[in-house]
Amino acid sequence: RCNSAALLNPAAHLASAEMNESGALNGTGVPVARIQASDGNSSLELSSQLPVFAINPWDVVLCISGTIIACENAIVVAIIFYTPNLRTPMFVLIGSLATADLLAGVGLILNFVFQYVIQSETISLITVGFLVASFTASVSSLLAITVDRYLSLYNALTYYSEKTVLCIHMMLIVTWGVSLCLGLLPVLGWNCLDDYSSCSIVRPLTKSNLTLLSASFFLVFIIMLHLYIKICKIVCRHAHQIALQQHFLSASHYVATKKGVSTLAIIIGTFGASWLPFAIYCVVGDLDYPSVYTYATLLPATYNSMINPIIYAYRNQEIQRAMWVLFCGCFQSKVSFRSRSPSDV
């Protein structure tokens, strides 16, 4: 039986393996908690038996990352919420992404607090489910944004119709509905608290649960890659059509096309580099592997939530203009802003 329930656990917790059995008494006659080690390896978990001062640096880094993620995305959520002009489908999806990443950052902070300050199996399970739901919603929102960008190019003439708005709302419902269901699975019993052998590299998630999450990510990544390849083809075709109409491909059109394709490559490359190592390790990793491997692959995955607001929000000139209003209290007319459409990459 697992002795704890949480998402992350320092490998240093096993240092107490050199101590005697858990029933040993200290000099004052008070029972001393013991943790029996096996080969110095363990998966990540929260341990309710560690003293508060035994803090793993990896957990501190994750907590700091969570704080940065929460602050970055809180600004985006506030800007979109308080700016009436940012109500188009594109900004609704960006708001969904920022909300998911904001919750993920808060979840990382809460995980640290519940690991070292408030230790409870029930609360830890809720925290795990909260993190799973948040990161799932983040990845799913990225997929929804990709679909929106593809539709804005493929159906440019009908993009701003009510049908598109309905499609966006349906995508949001599915995104958050699926994320909530996946987040509830560990809380409702799909965990390894009663069966240590079924634990994955991220306790208390079971191997089958983590495999399901990894398979879902691979599916999303393949769909996104396919859509971005189609977007690149559409962008290049549009540039070719403009060249035929003007009898030559001007330097500005060439630069714009090259920039668009490069941006798409950066978007999908950043997403893949952030999540693929952790998703692959979730499949091939084993419970007995050193927990440092899990930390080393999980940390880049959290960085994706740190990069998302930079790629999808802060580069957008309408959001930049809203930030001027929010932080400066006025809009400086000398700063030039150009309205962007979802197809602008």
Automatic annotation (TrEMBL):
Domain of life: Eukaryota
GO molecular function per UniProt: G protein-coupled receptor activity
Record-annotated G-protein coupled receptors family 1 profile domain positions: 72-312
Localization terms from the record: Cell membrane
GO CC annotations on file: plasma membrane
Annotated InterPro entries: GPCR_Rhodpsn (IPR000276), GPCR_Rhodpsn_7TM (IPR017452), GPR6 (IPR001151), GPR_3/6/12_orphan (IPR000723)
Membrane-spanning parts: 58-83, 90-117, 123-145, 166-190, 210-229, 261-280, 292-314
Keyword Cell membrane in record: yes
Protein name, per record: G protein-coupled receptor 6
Keyword Glycoprotein attributed: yes
Keywords: Cell membrane, G-protein coupled receptor, Glycoprotein, Lipoprotein, Membrane, Palmitate, Phosphoprotein, Receptor, Transducer, Transmembrane, Transmembrane helix
PROSITE patterns: G_PROTEIN_RECEP_F1_1, G_PROTEIN_RECEP_F1_2
Gene3D superfamilies in the record: Rhodopsin 7-helix transmembrane proteins (1.20.1070.10)
Pfam families in UniProt: 7tm_1
Family under the similarity heading: Belongs to the G-protein coupled receptor 1 family.
PANTHER family: G-PROTEIN COUPLED RECEPTOR
Main location, first listed in the record: membrane
Membrane-related topology note: Multi-pass membrane protein
